[in-house]
Design goal:
seven-stranded parallel β-sheet; 13 helices; single chain; alpha/beta; binds nicotinamide-adenine-dinucleotide; 12 strands; binds 2'deoxy-thymidine-5'-diphospho-alpha-D-glucose; Rossmann fold
Length: about 350
């Protein structure tokens, strides 16, 4: 059995579905079910005894301690986080509570549990911390991609809180020899992504005939990775990664935001043409994100060399699957975009002028 935190969110849910299909062993899923957590993502496991769901906070140390003692996981895969940069700009508090303090509280309970394990289980145990490429800061157009030894330079409250959690994980390995693994992944996209992140938001708005908001001039660059490829990389790191090491994970798909938005429009034009015109007519350039990082790019040589992992999807194949998934799951989208979602859209977009 492994324990996953944040397994009802976008990547966590994809990871659990992938894990149960590929490994077949049980998963204990601890998730607070914030606005981003949705048990509907795991509906296909409702009657599967290999998925054990517990609603709770990683900051609840008595709960975490009890779960560890009762289920005796051989590994923790730690996804739980506040993950949206724009929300961290509007309100950083939750980011510090969960990403920094939550990781600290989790580490403390895990350390105590791990110290009590018998020798074989003690040596086999792993704590896999899911971090982000954003901790390395922003690149200029001709800078070399991020490597594992690129210095930290986080620029948003989100990336700073993730950087802080990475330092704690590093320190727990260095000081207590907790067998940790840390991954730094680029932008994910795919099924079950909450429509606050660029690709999911653009698909959702386009289908609703709403404006497609592109920050600034749309020239910021991200390296997109299909979520299924991220999941397979995490299985490789957990199985064969060296304790105490960090691994960068990327998709070799550097694109400007405007290129991404135009490709989504092209895909929708093909699969669900509008009555007149193209979805690209909905593109609207709006006031930029404060402190907006210009470019992220990943050098994934280490994970490829040491673990033999490489992504299977190109951006074209991954995007086609993703757009098709959203078209086929209108009900899922309806469920997650009711209520509080509308408040967020008003808070983030109504005050942005067109540029
Ligand atoms: P998400 O926002 O979709 O999901 C986060 C999940 O964590 C939700 O289910 C939420 O309910 C849960 N959660 C939040 N606070 C919690 C708490 N205190 N206790 C327990 N559960 C809590 O996030 P995501 O996009 O799936 O990202 C997952 C992880 O991967 C994060 O750590 C993020 O930093 C990292 N990451 C994300 C991306 C990306 O492109 N989305 C890329 C690289 C790394
Ligand atoms: O790089 C990994 C990170 O990728 C993860 O750590 C984060 O959890 C994840 O949210 C993501 O961060 P970004 O800020 O890069 O993702 P987002 O989808 O919010 O934005 C992608 C790009 O699109 C970014 O340059 C901002 C821009 N954007 C975003 C939104 C929501 C727009 O132009 N318009 C929008 O409405």
């Amino acid at each position: 059995m492994i324990m996953v935190t944040g397994g009802a969110g976008f990547i966590g849910a994809n990871f659990i579905l992938d894990w149960i299909a590929a490994e077949g062993t049980a998963v204990l899923n601890l998730d607070k079910l914030t606005y981003a957590g949705n048990l509907g993502n795991l509906a296909s496991l409702t009657n599967d005894s290999r998925h054990i769901f517990v609603r709770g906070d990683i900051n609840d140390r008595p709960l975490v301690g009890r779960l560890l003692a009762e289920h005796k996981p051989r590994a923790i895969v730690h996804f739980a986080a506040e993950s949206h940069v724009d929300r961290s700009i509007h309100g950083p508090d939750e980011f510090i509570q969960t990403n920094l303090l939550g990781t600290f509280n989790l580490l403390e309970e895990v350390r105590s549990y791990w110290n009590g394990l018998a020798q074989e289980a003690h040596s086999a145990f792993r704590f896999l911390h899911i971090s982000t490429d954003e901790v390395y800061g922003s690149l200029n157009a001709d800078d070399a991609p991020f490597r594992e030894d690129t210095p930290y330079a986080p620029n948003s409250p989100y990336s700073a809180s993730k950087a802080g959690s990475d330092h704690l994980v590093r320190a727990y390995h260095h000081t207590y020899e907790l067998p940790t693994l840390t991954t730094h992944c680029s932008n994910n996209y795919g099924p079950y992504q909450f429509p606050e992140k660029l690709i999911a938001l653009v698909v959702h708005n386009a289908l609703a005939g709403k404006a497609l908001p592109v920050y600034g001039k749309g020239l910021n660059v991200r390296d997109w990775l299909y979520v299924g490829d991220h999941c397979s990389s995490l299985r490789s790191v957990l199985a064969r990664g060296r304790a105490g090491e960090t691994y960068n994970i990327g998709g070799n798909n550097e694109l400007t935001n405007i290129e991404v938005v135009r490709m989504i429009c092209g895909e929708l034009d093909r699969l669900r043409p509008r009555a007149s015109g193209t979805y690209a007519d909905l593109i609207s350039f709006v006031t930029d994100r404060p402190g907006h990082d210009l470019r992220y790019a990943i050098d994934a040589t280490k994970i490829n060399r040491e673990l033999g992992w490489r992504p299977q999807e190109t951006f074209a194949t991954g995007l086609a699957k993703t757009v098709r998934w959203y078209l086929d799951h209108a009900e899922w989208v309806r469920d997650v975009t009711s209520g509080a979602y509308r408040n967020w859209v008003e808070q983030n977009y109504l005050s942005r002028g067109n540029t």
